[in-house]
Amino acid sequence: MSSDTIIISKKSLMTLIGVVIIIVLAVYFYTSYYSTQKETSEINFYKAALYKSISCQYSCPLIEQEFQNKTQFLPSRSCVEGCITELNALNLSSTKFSNEKLLGDNLIPDIENVINNCKKINLEQNDTENKIFFSCSVNGLNALKLNYTYIN
Known about the structure:
Distance between the termini: 73 Å
Oligomer: single chain
Shape: rod-shaped
Order of helices and strands: HEEHHHH
Number of domains: 1
Structural class: mainly alpha
Number of strands: 2
Strand content: 5-15%
Strand order of the largest sheet: 1-2
Number of helices: 5
Radius of gyration: 27 Å
């Protein structure tokens, strides 16, 4: 036998292969988990920014305005524009996430339900000034914070 030959037992070789497999699996699961957590965090940030913009717009002071040939109390245009400008300043991409991922929890449907329920209440109360609608909407949107901690 020459002195350049290394002899490895089958047991040692199998142990080495097992360790390599475990390391590869650990790295795979760690990177997979990290990328999933990062995406979830980005989706929640995006939805929170949308929520805050919507809440901001519905919280704007009501001013008597002409809309659809009718004088109504509606949120101040400059205030609404400010809310939208704040959202746009974040440079969020509306196409980055699929609808399926955005609907992973019920925040967006819950926002829609709050607004639709408040429209219904406003119609039932025959509030032509929309004060009930906007007050109801703000209260309903604020109540969602209890169920979705990432929008606080």
